[in-house]
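Sample pair:
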Amino acid sequence: MTSRDGGDDWGAEVFEALRRLGIRHVATVPDAGLGRFLELCEADPGIRLITLTTEEEGIAVACGTWLGGELAAVAMQSSGVGNIVNMLALPNVCRIPCLLLVSMRGEAEERNPWQVPVGRAVPDLLAALDVDVFRPEAAAGVAPAFAEAAARARETGRPAAVLVSQRIIGAKSFVSGD
């Protein structure tokens, strides 16, 4: 999958930001849109990549990791945001920073109509759930947005999410493993 705006390396840049931020735990329901980032996390012995069965488990992992003294990241596709709605009460009520990296679906050039309703709702849904939302305009802005979201989550004791648009990620072709 190639980024529409030419930023093929945004995943590597976010990975480097993750390392600079001292984040050593990444919980994920794997997604091709986050592929490069997740591959780099898996290859780094200093990062613990935790594969989940559902996205809400990632919120619990992030909360438990914070109780252990560290910020974790939770990586998912936008369709998974629908699965974490109730679970987001935990970090909000308990004032636990929670950092989300979300690959968006249902936007430009989406070929799966089932992705469109939730994809359109994600930014407003997260905002309504008191999650600070960051939407970089280009691939070069994803890593800085990730670092800013991490700082905001730590500062406020609330969840913060970086939404990586389909324009940045590129549309899935459903050919050769996308």
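The first strand starts at residue 25 and ends at 28.
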